[in-house]
Amino acid sequence: MLLEDGQLAQGKEVIEKLPAGALTEPTPLINIGIIMMNKKQPAAAVDYFSKAIALAPNAADGYYYRGLANLQAGKAKDAKPDLQKVVELAPDSDQAKEAKEYLKSIK
To answer: Which long-range contacts does 75-82 make (Cβ < 8 Å, 24+ apart)?
Structure first.
């Protein structure tokens, strides 16, 4: 609710204070990461997307957004495995279609 209300600092604080195992799904972490990307802070976003992936390693969203954050940071080589993982986990998704396009541009 704090994130939806634009209270990023307070939302991050609440999430960081949660006991281990209290967060059971990655959406809040992904939302913070997206906000960080929108604020042109891709390195901070990567940290949150990595936490989301640790929480839900079989969900494509964390990989997709971490790949985008790495692209935003100019780290295409770091983005490539994440984008490939999106295609592997959700081959028919819109995210996979976009990931394939990004992969074409990464040498």
So the answer is: 76/105, 76/106, 76/107, 77/106, 79/106, 80/106
